[in-house]
């Protein structure tokens, strides 16, 4: 039996008969944002959606008694750079959107879920974490703000240490639409790459140039290593949260 499900493809009857205590819901949420001349406005949400699917596949192989229910991606978020095409939202709105998703899931009998973002803006991550805490406090619903663990200060520091242990296999994290993000998009969505990254210089100012980092050095091979690296970290966080509690 396939234990990866897509919410929009189910009927109300199928939702009713799911064993809710064995279901983990995944919510991809990221804004539409300028990503330089080389990446599409949907970069963050495309990454979040694909990462949700890959994480569900990875977890499902080990936790065969669980089901992983993936929601359609929500193209909303906080803190995008101020350039043409960026669609920003207020932090409290994103907190409320996530909270209401969790509340409705709770009302349908679900017990736990994971919030996944391809966007690492501080206000966006704070909205995710605040919604997660409120849902836990009011309803006992566990909505793990996964990306907040990875890209807030403590997570970035730990991730940097883990990257350093990999030696030359992984580059240091370099910000918005740089080597990391461009490489990940080249691996996950090669059809969305226009090739303009090859001639771009290193940038330190995303607001002025649309990107920060070194996209010219990106490659799908680096992207694959980064995605696998992040999936391994995500699996550790999720398993500790849902399956390895003391």
UniProtKB/TrEMBL annotation:
Keyword Zinc recorded: yes
InterPro entries: Creatininase-like_sf, Creatininase/forma_Hydrolase
Keywords tagged on the record: Hydrolase, Metal-binding, Zinc
Keyword Transferase appears in the UniProt entry: no
Cofactor list: Zn(2+)
GO BP, sorted A to Z: riboflavin biosynthetic process
Superkingdom classification of source: Bacteria
GO terms of molecular function: hydrolase activity, acting on carbon-nitrogen (but not peptide) bonds, in linear amides; metal ion binding
TM stretches of this protein: none
Family matches, as Gene3D superfamilies: Creatininase (3.40.50.10310)
One of the Pfam families matching this protein, by short name: Creatininase
Family statement drawn from the similarity comment of this UniProt entry: Belongs to the creatininase superfamily.
Protein name as catalogued: Creatinine amidohydrolase
